[in-house]
Design goal:
This is Ras-related protein Rab-7. By secondary structure, this protein is of the alpha/beta class. The protein is built from six helices and six strands. Bound molecules: guanosine-5'-diphosphate and magnesium ion.
Length: about 180
């Protein structure tokens, strides 16, 4: 079966980023294998779950998606509580959404109370990499450098639309989380 009871490990992952970068599409692809072409604002905190299989270990991943009109610090504490990784999403065609990552990361650090936690897993995702190269206004090298210099574990270019790199990204998130969980066992 595919129930959460099959999993030895459970984790909560929070997805942050400005409006329309494709957070909800990423989460729906991972959890429900669906892609939504028409834009719908997510109302209320939204979450999905999926099972990730990594080197013979099954991990049940609960993925929390931002609610409604994305504003910094607008989500309540329950949204952040217990998160074991944070996926920071920007749109490769929107430099503004990339610049916003700094504030999303800072607000997560404040709200999730992880100031003392130096290797907390942050993963940076440049979504919509299916769009034409000439429209991709955020250089990959610049984003990768920002991720490195700001203590993020990895940077991925993904397409929720075409499912490019989406599973690979999640597996990396789970790998980072499991490494920390197993170190504490
Ligand atoms: P959110 O506000 O961050 O949750 O963004 P959504 O997931 O609702 O997506 C916003 C818009 O971007 C929608 O019209 C999606 O169809 C579109 N979108 C999401 N992911 C992709 C992608 O990978 N490629 C392209 N071309 N469009 C995408
Ligand atoms: Mg959304």
């Amino acid at each position: 079966g595919g129930g959460s009871f099959d999993a030895k490990y459970h984790t909560k992952v929070t997805v942050l980023g400005s409006a329309a970068v494709g957070k909800t599409c990423l989460v729906r692809q991972l959890c429900f294998k669906k892609y939504q072409e028409t834009y719908k604002v997510t109302l209320g905190a939204d979450f999905g779950a999926c099972l990730a299989h990594l080197d013979g270990t099954v991990c049940h991943v609960q993925i929390w998606d931002t609610a409604g009109h994305e504003r910094f610090n607008s989500m309540g504490p329950a949204f952040y509580r217990g998160s074991q990784a944070c996926i920071l999403v920007y749109d490769v065609t929107s430099p503004k959404s990339f610049e916003d990552l700094r504030e999303w990361k800072e607000s997560f650090e404040e709200q999730a109370d992880i100031a003392e936690d130096e290797d907390f897993p942050f993963i940076v995702v440049g979504n919509k990499c299916d769009l034409p190269k000439e429209d991709q206004l955020v250089p990959e090298a610049k984003a990768a450098r920002w991720a490195r210099e700001n203590g993020c574990a990895a940077h991925f270019l993904c397409s929720a639309k075409e499912m490019t790199n989406v599973h690979a990204m999640l597996l990396d998130v789970v790998r980072l989380v499991l490494k920390r969980l197993k170190a504490r066992e």
